[in-house]
Design a protein that fits this description.
Strand content: 5-15%
CATH topology: Rossmann fold
Shape: globular
CATH superfamily: P-loop containing nucleotide triphosphate hydrolases
Number of helices: 6
Structural class: alpha+beta
Largest sheet: 2 strands, antiparallel
Order of helices and strands: EEHEHEEHEHHH
Length: about 170
């Protein structure tokens, strides 16, 4: 679990789906979160195209580059730079993991009786300001029309497209 404090007193809580209880005597994850943070908006960010998600993950893991600013500055690099190499097995494994994680989150939301605000990666990357307005509206906060610079660049490129086409040829269905 990690907690990042944002502007306007909004906290961003990132949970892994094996989060252990931190408040004794409260039976559900939702109740523990709401006891700790008050009114909580649950957001389920997912990527509809799981193959693209798997390829992006494998490519980032191999290259070490996870996030880059729109000006090309590296924001998050977890290992020395390396050229990514197509790896069908790694992509297939991550594809399976992506489907599994989405199913686990869906089960957790159902178990906790949570109807999360659902946001897709594609919507967020295509219209970050629109998604920002959607989140602020769900929080009951006013949306100020000024455009805030988007701090990260999309890393997918022609190599991602090549890998997806190759994977679909090699792994039918």
């Amino acid at each position: 679990m990690s907690l990042d404090c944002g502007c306007n007193g909004i906290a961003l809580l990132t949970l892994s789906n094996n989060w252990a209880s931190c408040i004794r005597g409260i039976c559900s994850d939702r109740a523990r979160l709401e006891a700790a943070f008050g009114r909580t908006l649950f957001i389920h960010l997912t990527r509809e195209n799981k193959l693209d998600q798997a390829i992006s993950y494998v490519k980032a893991k191999q290259s070490g580059l996870w996030h880059m600013a729109t000006d090309g500055t590296e924001i998050e690099r977890l290992s020395a730079p390396a050229d990514p190499v197509y790896d069908r097995e790694a992509i297939a494994d991550q594809l399976e993991a992506s489907f599994r994680m989405d199913a686990e989150w869906a089960a957790w939301f159902a178990q906790e009786r949570i109807a999360p605000l659902r946001i897709t990666y594609d919507a967020l990357s295509e219209d970050p300001h629109g998604v920002r307005a959607q989140v602020l509206a769900a929080l009951g906060l006013a949306y100020e029309a000024e455009r805030v610079a988007v701090p990260v660049a999309k890393l997918a490129d022609g190599l991602n497209v090549e890998w997806a086409e190759r994977f679909r040829r090699e792994v039918p269905g």
